[in-house]
Write the structure tokens for this entry.
Amino acid sequence: MTVTLADVAARAQVSPATVSRVLNGNYPVAASTRERVLRAVDELDYVLNGPASALAAATSDLVGILVNDIADPFFGIMASAIQSEVSGPGGRAGGERLAVVCNTGGSPERELTYLTLLQRQRAAAVVLTGGAVENPAHLAAVSAKLRRLADAGTRVVLCGRPPAPDTSAIALTFDNRGGGQELTEHLIGLGHRRLGYIAGPEERTTTRHRLEGHRAALAVHGIEEDPRWTVYGRYDRRSGYEATLELLRRDPSLTAVVAANDSVAIGACAALRESGRRIPDDVSVAGFDDLPFSVDAWPSLTTVRLPLAEAGARAGRIAMGREEPPPGGIATARGELMVRGSSGVPRK
Amino acid sequence: MTVTLADVAARAQVSPATVSRVLNGNYPVAASTRERVLRAVDELDYVLNGPASALAAATSDLVGILVNDIADPFFGIMASAIQSEVSGPGGRAGGERLAVVCNTGGSPERELTYLTLLQRQRAAAVVLTGGAVENPAHLAAVSAKLRRLADAGTRVVLCGRPPAPDTSAIALTFDNRGGGQELTEHLIGLGHRRLGYIAGPEERTTTRHRLEGHRAALAVHGIEEDPRWTVYGRYDRRSGYEATLELLRRDPSLTAVVAANDSVAIGACAALRESGRRIPDDVSVAGFDDLPFSVDAWPSLTTVRLPLAEAGARAGRIAMGREEPPPGGIATARGELMVRGSSGVPRK
DNA sequence: AGCGTTGCAGCAAGCGCTTTCTATACAGGG
DNA sequence: CCCTGTATAGAAAGCGCTTGCTGCAACGCT
């Protein structure tokens, strides 16, 4: 029924071995023979059997990209950058690898499941993106998985994610702490003294690092933090909206709201507006990530730009072995403070 | 080095066949034997070799999801819904299938390449999402591919995409035309007579259908369309921003701007605001899709809600054979007009 | 002329699993 | 007590491909 290598070989009047070598192009084949084979491939509309090939060669052309939330552009941008590098240098339309993204939905179990599935497929490489869940048991389980993957020859790269201890995984991280600190220092510099903070999910590394940066800035300027000023939530708009209402309820005198990311900040803006406050006249707002929509939010968002696409591209190249890993296997990219319309001098 | 089925069999003191049967659970195995095998699997930390299994069984557990733009929540939401259905009913954390999303970036070549790659892997199912490129040659090529995939036993489902002619693919489409018409009729009902339209890429089905709906509404109300009122662009914010400036240049007297989707509409809002116009007092704006951010844009966006998650979930179930395909293989979902703050009565 | 090279193609042995067919063991009915 | 039926396990034949090794011309060197 389906066309096999042998069919092609018969049609081209060569041995299956020769067809295989033409297709893989890693062994000398005479030009005339090659052409004959290629013609047969074309005429029969032959498509390689991936599993068979993977089995025989003990490698596959699958590259997995794990993301926490596929509906969030933060991950979309990184995934997109990774994929284009994996699919072929210079943006060749496709290339030979199957770059696929897997959506964990932020669930540790799903993360592990996908890792196993990828291990099962003998993936050529795996890129994990975004913050990790800080549960020790989970971290250990992930590290163990990554070790086994690496042992099996799968290249493992972490992108926008902290290094995995006891692992050979290359880590390209973001300086969330530094960015958070710089951002809050900017607000303090403007004169803010009562700053609310809307954090992400409590057990995420990203959440913790950004919050630590925020608090470091407060400490540097001798501002004692009121516990009521921090609310945890999710990394989405609705969460920002609700958390802001909660913050205002707890302390209506806040003059600034720092959000865990841009989506949250947008939600915060909506809540502030609905409560009759003007931005930044009454309350300043700051985000994180500098996603594309942030610049033309209203007002445009003061935030920290993260080199998402650059990091993704680099992770993709490293995963394909086309770029040297950074010394020590770890590289940290700094964020860049983007001061825009949503932050200003407090009026009271 | 790596653990194989035979190793597990040896450890459990059974034959490889028995281990395979325990793992696949489709053949009677005595409870005691099963347990022994499972223990051995656990102790050896055995992971099935996917390619070998796929080769022997002539099927794989890979399910591919093709999207035009992974950074766009429109696709993210559908992909996410598809993935959860594929990964297991009731949201089981993982399940047995590897649901992966492939980013075509809207490029026809990449679309074809991914289809071939998926065919190579003998994917269990493939779901194509979003508008198709209306190039006849490309459509024919895609149809041919889909036919071969179906022949090889791969289930093919189109989600938010028009039916593929001469194909057995199940199509779950959106009524873009009807939605577009309803939206524009709403604006006309408010009194608008000079409406700009920012379309998506010219060769996409989605673009054409939405625009046709818009024009149908104009025709119904006897409004003669000025060719200057339509600008084509991409489905992103920046495009909306630029297109709006262009529209205003061409005809500063427009009282409404209808955008191809919500992102474009957000960009339009930014451009209008920068040109000193108030929304909706001076100019009304309307989007399409009702993505999550639309409700708390400022002002909140009048748009057409598409059942993205529902359609995705259904597509996922059909792809897994857990739901009957619609009669005739085609189902069309209507959009729902969401009237919000960005549309109002024109003031002049 | 003899012989080592070089260039290209084929043989055949797997890769690790699934599955058909066969074998064995035991239970119960005649 | 033999025969049939039922339940469970094993043997072995591939699945379609890759690749180390062998084979064999043609070539150029001494």
